[in-house]
Amino acid sequence: MRNWTRCSGVYSNMLRLPLFLVCSLAVLAQQRPQQDPLDGAIQAVWQARNDGRFQEAAAGRERARVLLQRMPADSPRFAGWAPQVAQLYQNSGMNAQARAILQEALARTGPLGDSHPSHIAMLGALGESWRQDGNLLKAVGYLEQAATAQAAAPPVAPSQTVMRGVMVSMSRVSYAGNAGGGYFGSAIYAYTRLADLYQQLGRPDAVAAIAVKVRTLAANDQSALARFYEQHGQVDEAAAIYKKLAEQAADPQAKANAWQSLANLDARQEHYTGAIDAIQQAIAAVESADKPGGPSQTLWMRQTLAGYMRSAGLLDQADQVYQQLLQQNRGEPQETQMLGAYALYLADTKRGPQGESLLKNYLAGRSNLDPQQKMNALFNLANVARRTGDTKAADEYQQAAQALQPQMPPPPTGQIRIGEELQKVQTAMNQHRLDDAYGLALDAIDSAPQAADGQQIQWLVPQVARELAGHKEPAKAERLFQRLFALAQNWLVDNVQPLIAVTQNYASFLMSQPDRLGEAPAAIEEYRRALTDANGPDSGSLAEPLRMKIGFERSRSQWQNADASVRELLELQESLSGNTSEPYLGDLQTAARIYDAAGDPARALPLFRKAVTIADLLAKPDNDWRRSQTRMDAALTLARLGQFDEAEMLGEEAIALQQTMRTPRPPLAQQLEQIRRMKQAAVTALSGR
Predict the structure, then answer these.
(1) In contact, 55 and 206? CB cutoff 8 Å
(2) The two domains 14-233 and 329-406 share their CATH topology (first three levels equal)
(3) Is-contact 137 156, C-beta < 8 A?
(4) H helices within 388-456, ranges in order?
(5) pLDDT band with cut points at 50, 70 and 90 for residue 620
């Protein structure tokens, strides 16, 4: 195994993303003529990190923390500053330290009163931090306090808030204001996010109680109540409110917004006839207003209308909408975008050659296109060709488009970037030139410490190592990992995420090497220690190395060890999120399948039965696929135990539930047929004795 010393400190799982990016959570003071020192310190940290000056960033982060400690907790800006300083640490993977800053800020705002905006903001920020960490029980404790305090606080005018709360993750961006109705500081929002958490925890009675409170609070904000209903599966109630708002609204934009909300809701339910009607009403409302920006708004609404028509099978009508859009935008700035959208629509409706011809003719007849328009058309051509299966043409179009992309400006004097080096590594990998990829990867590692973008290397080099090991070059693979470990140690002063990344990747790498399996448990344990240091001993991230360990033990048929590990995982998950939550259900199913794979269905059955109960608690009124899947899992296990009558009954329940879903997932009908064949085989065998 590698030779390196684990440093103390606070590390972070590479997969754990920023907890929140909050520009402001409370009332703003009037703008000062000069920048506040804390604002300057925060900006300086971001700038230093962007420039690759990591030592300066680390020092600046500590300075910002000290400045925050000196700021009076009753300052109108304190509620915005504290999360921003915490974000500096979280962005470097130091999640436990980030929460410590918020916890200290919460203690300082306590004397101001439970309903003080800064105190509420700290409760909310800590709740969101723990929720994204995976400790739902800690999260619900803080969010319950925040919601109660917010409901008791005097209302804050929307004009006094800076912006809607923004939660940022790599895979999605959700805006809290829309999720909860009203602005960030509203009680409706606080109760809505609390209801979301109760839903995750499998507490439907608590969700119902929140709904009563939201109905009371939303007496003058029916759109917020509709969004609450929509989020929690009460689609009929939400639709009724949206329709009422649309019909009663005097303002054309408010009317259009309500019709659009109803259209989106209908489309998600695959009620496309209703969605078409609602979006047409929204378009008519915008057009009636005759305000600036209306044509641009209706442009995209009509494209949405065409999409609904296509989903409803009304291709002739969808074609007419697109042709009208093309005619209306001929010669306009949006023409290229409309042509691209129409060409992709043609490709998706089995008319790819027509779409490709449309774009090629456009390029041929427009010699005065600017580079951006030409590039967009070529990228659309590549997408059309790829959807029709012509990968060669798609690659040619894409290369032509990339040649038109603006060149990246050279880095500032003295700044190094390794993006081009990493592209060369990827190209060598794609072309199976592994010796070249290895040499280029080593060069990139050498350049990374001085490069502003050097930390990108943590994602690509492990891929090179795995390829090398797969082609009988284990020594080279090991050398790459050792170099990555050394590099990650150098970055610890500013960012602990690279160390987490290489620790996790190394454990996975060892698990895939038959002659090094004996080293995998120690590597997994090192990964667990790093996560503990990163996020603290109460972190939900600690479930991941346990799952990795279970997978390893299962792959080696170490059933006794796997038994101990799954029990440890369930105990951990229960301490984090209770024994009726979504995370607990997932790990419970893992445990049941381990026992099943070990040839012990009798031990798996109680867990599968419990999974059915939890899935029912987690289900929303519009149903979800887990209710059917957990029943079929239990039915198959019952069949293996010879309990065919109950197995068949549960299987039929699973099928009945599946038929209520818009998009059934697993092939349950085949599994039910398998149970019936097993039953018949057992009856035949019994009668033949």
Answers:
(1) no
(2) yes
(3) no
(4) 391-403, 419-430, 434-447
(5) confident
CA atoms of 210 and 358, how far apart (whole Å): 53
Tell me the pLDDT tens digit for each residue of 249-258. Answer: 999 999 999 9
DSSP string, 174-238: EEHHHHHSS-TT-HHHHHHHHHHHHHHHT-HHHHHHHHHHHHHHGGG-HHHHHHHHHHTT-HHHH
Domains of the chain: which residue ranges? Answer: 14-233, 329-406
Instruction: Give the β-pairing of 173-175 and 166-168.
Output: antiparallel
Please tell me whether residue 324 adopts helix, strand or coil conformation.
Answer: helix
Predicted structure pTM score: 0.81
- For 45, 227, 250, 261, 538, the CA distances from 238, given in Å and listed in that order, are 45, 7, 20, 9, 38
Mean pLDDT on 468-483 = 94
On whether the CB atoms of residues 349 and 388 are closer than 8 A, the answer is no
Residue pair 9/492 in contact (Cβ under 8 Å)? The answer is: yes
Cβ neighbourhood burial of 514 (10 Å; 0-12, 13-18, 19+): exposed
Homologous superfamily, domain 14-233: Tetratricopeptide repeat domain (1.25.40.10)
**pLDDT score of 14 more than 60:** no
Reported as type and span, the H/E element at residue 567 is: helix 559-577
86-127 tens-digit pLDDT = 999 999 999 999 999 999 999 999 999 999 999 999 999 999
* Average pLDDT of the residues in 515-524: 95
C-alpha distances (whole Å) from 670 to each of 220, 629, 674, 677 are: 51, 13, 6, 10
Q: Give the H or E element holding residue 433.
A: none
Q: Which residue bears the tokens 């381990």?
A: 594
Chain-centroid distance, C-alpha 187: 25
Identity of the residue numbered 659:
Q
pLDDT at residue number 145: 96
Please return the burial class of 582, using the count of CB atoms within 10 Å of its CB with bins 0-12, 13-18 and 19+.
middle
Q: Is 7 exposed, middle or buried (0-12, 13-18, 19+ CB in 10 A)?
A: middle
530 CB contacts (<8 Å, ≥6 apart)?
6, 11, 499, 500, 503
Nearest to 127 by CA among 93, 161, 150: 150
Query: Residue 9 gets which letter from DSSP?
Result: S
Sequence-distant (≥ 6) Cβ neighbours of residue 531 within 8 angstroms: 11, 12, 13, 500, 539, 541, 542, 544, 545
Spell 58-81 as b/e; 16+ CB within 10 A means b: bbbbebbbebbeebebeeebbbbb
Residue 206: per-residue pLDDT: 96
Quote the distance between the C-alpha of residue 13 and its chain's center: 15
For 329-406, give the CATH class.
Answer: mainly alpha
- At residue 639, what is the residue type? A
Cβ pair 37, 524 in contact under 8 A: no
Contacts of 541 (CB under 8 A, 6+ apart): 13, 16, 133, 134, 531, 534, 535
DSSP run (H or E) holding 167: strand 166-168
- Using CA atoms of 554, 555, 557, 560 in order, give the dihedral in degrees to the nearest 10: -30
Chain-centroid distance, C-alpha 108: 33
Structure-block tokens of residue 356 = 């490709």
- What's the pLDDT score for residue 289? 79
